[in-house]
Hints:
This protein is of the alpha+beta class. It has helices spanning 66-82, 105-119, 126-134, 191-201, 205-225, 228-247, 258-272, 296-304, and strands at residues 2-14, 19-21, 26-27, 31-48, 55-58, 61-62, 87-95, 148-151, 164-168, 176-181, 277-281, 287-291, 311-315, 322-323. Helix 2 (105-119) crosses helix 3 (126-134) and helix 5 (205-225) packs antiparallel against helix 6.
Amino acid sequence: MKITARAHTNIALIKYWGKRDEQLFLPMNNSISITLDQFYTTTSVAFRDDLKADSFILNGIEMGGHEVDKISRFLDLIRQTAGRNEYAIIDSVNNVPTAAGFASSASGFAALAAASTKAIGLDYSGSDLSRIARFGSGSACRSIYGGYVEWNKGVRVDGTDSYAMQILEESKWDLSILSVMVEARQKKVLSREGMTHTVKTSDFYSGWLETIDADLNLAREAIHGRDFEKLGTVLERNALKMHATMLGANPPFFYWTGATLDVMHTVQELRDSGIQAYFTIDAGPNVKVICQPKDEMAVKERMQQIQTVREVFVCHPGPGVSYIGE
Length: 326
């Protein structure tokens, strides 16, 4: 049976930075995210007994090597859980501007987890689906749900209590999320490498862990209370603290470019002029600017006026995993 699932990507408002277990994708801290409506992956999976290996088609192109190996390792977990050994045909289409530096791993593995578990006969939803998606990409566990989502780091060694849960549905609080593209090149330090290096060597990492719970509490309160200023203040500070841990690493490293700073300064200027806008930055140079829908056009126009900005994508809170054709 072929099953088709769709999942949307997300951005972290309160970041996770560093893993306590690399193999099980267990984070050092909880994180909070927004699922986005405009960026998503649609994936079909069919297990067949006449295949000698998994076949992975991405955006109409048959993939090989490392890309297929990564998908096969993930499907091995599904096969092992289901007690089945058939290989699969995976056909995936990304509606995510990956060339612009916006990661599709969260939506990709969330969609793959949903389609493959159902195709092989596993009745997974909610926390179970979130747990299995985590093994493909940590942030994928958050894309199982729509709206505002928290990934619980868990405390068990086996990771069974590390999964995401929804804080607030996407329809309950509309915000505008502007993904501001300033750089399209492959970053020199991959996120996974950056996390590991920071945890092992940064003088500032202990401060990150000591303050993360306070950030999480403020973000939860802001989301439940629809307090935009409180949420914006904590998400911006949290992003800056995460990047500060990299500057404290040995040797230090950073993802920002001059264009990144241009956007950050412009957001601060918008606030000085009376428009509430806040920025957050993942492990890369591109910036996400959060504002209220009433200010969306003004913020977008200001971002587009920055000479170093290449493109601006406007999103709002989006849905969780869905199945196509049902």
